[in-house]
Design a protein that fits this description.
Elements (H helix, E strand, L loop, with lengths): L4 H7 L4 H6 L1 E6 L5 E7 L13 H6 L4 H10 L3 E12 L6 E7 L2 H11 L4 E11 L5 E13 L4
Antiparallel strand pairs: 1-2, 2-4, 3-6, 4-5, 5-6
Length: 151
């Protein structure tokens, strides 16, 4: 299934893991270059020690490098999340934000590496920051790319 960025902006907040956790997409660039996601800590979505769940912090970045890539590269590519890593640096309190960016040169690399039909795995890094700009967690996501065979 393929969604446009505007469709994702409108409906991803209804996705059950985000709805229950309080994760909101604030920005999703039409060209797949930037996604901004926020989580606001409330009594309903905090863990036992009053901070953001580690799983919520990881989920804030889960689909977005993949979805942004799908929006940019189109239906000619197979794209999926392959791996994820997180390093928690401090408790997530208040409003936390993840800004995920994919520059044009990364898309050019993806196209070059997959031009002959080979798979390409790319690691993306992003920080989840609190309202004061301090890093709460460093997240790495690996995305799988392969250009579909021409029929």
């Amino acid at each position: 299934m393929h969604f446009t960025p505007s469709q994702l902006r409108r409906f991803i907040f209804l996705w059950p893991p985000f709805l229950g956790a309080g994760v909101k997409v604030k920005e999703f660039a039409d060209d797949g270059s930037r996604v901004v996601v926020q989580h606001k800590l409330t009594k309903l979505n905090q863990n036992a020690v009053g901070t953001a769940f580690g799983g919520t912090i990881m989920a804030m970045t889960d689909p977005f490098f993949m979805l942004a890539s799908m929006a940019r590269l189109g239906k000619e590519y197979l794209v999926w999340d392959a791996a994820g890593e997180v390093q928690f640096l401090k408790p997530g309190k208040g409003r936390i934000t993840a800004t995920m960016e994919i520059p044009d040169d990364v898309y050019e690399t993806i196209k070059e590496k997959t031009a002959g039909g080979s798979k390409y795995l790319h690691w993306f890094d992003t920080d989840v920051v609190d309202e004061s700009g301090e890093v709460v967690a460093h997240v790495r996501r690996q995305v799988y790319y392969r250009r579909k065979a021409k029929k």
